[in-house]
Amino acid sequence: MPDTWRSGYGSSVTAAPRPEFDAELKAGLAVVGGMFPPTITPALLDFMRTSYASAPIDDLLAQRRIERLDLPVPGHLGDEIVVSVLRPAGLTGPRPGVVYAHSGGMMFGDRFSGIDLVLDWVDSLGVVLVTVEYRLAPEHPDPYPREDVYAALEWVASHHTDLQIRLDRLLVAGASAGGGLAAGIALQARDRGGPRLCGQVLDYPMLDDRGLTHSTHQFDGVGVWDRVSNETGWDALLGPARGGAGVSPYAAPARAEDLTGLPPAFIDVGAAEIFRDEAMAYADRIWRAGGDAELHVFGGAFHGCDLFAPHTAVGRRMIHVRNSWVEKILAD
Amino acid sequence: MQELLGRIARLDPSASLGLRVIACFDELVVGHVNTRGLLAAAASLAGCPAGFRRISEAACVRVGPKGDLLDGPAPEVPAALRLTTADGLEVWLERDGEPAANDGITLERLSLAVRARHGLVRRDDIRRHAAIMLDRQSSAEERVAAAEALGLTVQGEYRIAAAPLFAQWQQHPGGPEDVIPTRHGPMHVVVLPADHDTVVASPCGLGTVTPVDRLHESFRVAVVALRLCSPPEEPLVDAHAYGGLLTMLANAPEDSHQPDVERMAEVATRPWGLSTVAALLATQSIREAARHAGVHHSTLQSRADVVSSTLGFDPLDGLGRARLGIAFLSHRLRHSTVLELPPPSS
User: Fold this and answer.
1) Which pTM was predicted?
2) ipTM computed for the complex
């Protein structure tokens, strides 16, 4: 049966009203229309793994004078995984550190996916960035991805002297699926007495497997990550447990009941993406618990638009706002 | 975006990047984007800084490919990378070496957009001929004038081919073409003579053949045809295969109460629902339909019974067939995903 004969998806006349995309972003979409499907089904997994693969990183690092060191670290269950330690060339002495979890819907991407934006922290703030090649679903379902990142965090903390990273200025960060992982390991670190974090940067994070929010249903078939893509990702991670009673709050941080005692959170999200409501709710619950969170919702922004179109006014604003918060927390 | 343009070109060497550049600036003008944003788009497309000044002033605005404002005066730029308008504005691209393939169209569109932003030309006045000709709000005189300006013969008969910018074209018959804004996004249109060569494109809709002052109807029908495409099985839909049906669908108000269509949506919730309806429409009997669908006769019969009871009428009897066909097309139209960005061929 032709793929386009689906019921209930796509540009139905009864579709919910949604905020429009920003004009500069629409112009960008007109240029690159055809590169990224908004609706990712399991059948598209191989394609996405190929097309989402990051651009060759070494030229980019050389241009920005950033040194790279790949190291094996013990991941979940002690299995070896790789991290890359990125450091400004020639900069010695203990530096603030960031443990970074990349984007890719839990199913694709690698530790350099989307890293362009966070390299700003390395070359302008002198941060050491440790980006983790966590194992991907569905081959490695929950808890592999988050336990791999958590294990990398613990490894960074226990090797901070060799890595020349300051333990008193260590934060976790991630975008999209990586943002969900970052929120999850902030919770784990709190509950397991793990490394003390000075912040968590959650960029348009993927926090909630339940898919019940209003914004989840507003963007079927538009943008770069819609409700069906989200179900595909959460299914890959959680299998039949998705949406049910037994999902760990570390895997789906929106389910965490206690948001006290967490490191200060920076949360950004677009007004025109499915994650809008769950990001807003997470910030709101941190504040109700008396915690420190900063929330930015960008009008007309779709998911990851700062990566897609960093030259636009909204893209530049997202990058600037994020970088200035990180500067506040981490800069000398 | 330059990197993305390059990637599109590598994936599909036939892709018309010029149309994409045009569509980009159309969106920026419609969206009231300011000069910095216009320059940022141009710089991002070109992969080098873009600049603007009024020729009566020394001060200029220069923007890099990341949208950053650049200090300093405009560098010397060869004539091929510079465009000065009759009303005293100048735009340029700061590229070392030879101009790139799309620099010309980028500068042309940038200058027009900047002029509109500075109030030197009204947005309405920069509408192109194709947009005027295909707009049902235009008067007949305006449409005919636009058609003549496009080089069409006023007594001739033509039809519109409509495709998204990401369509893949294997055979592209000649004819005036442009990109025009629609509520489905920018649409690539080609005006074809009635006796045109075969079109091989996916996805693509061919509208009805009409005289030049009714091409706006051909366009609306072409969009309906396009939205009925199902690549790869049915990459192109020709309205003539449906007689007047697509015209009827094009003219039906979208929010009209259509109980048959709503029940078709229920049929569609079954995994075999729509393929059963398709088989019934393609054949004369349950037996043939079963062969068409590749299932046992009794399987098709029981599925057809479910379809029948869901719809509330007999889809094989008299007008029931017509109702089935129209509800099926209407449902596919309402739930069409063909204009969503598909994955490119890897």
Assistant:
1) 0.87
2) 0.88
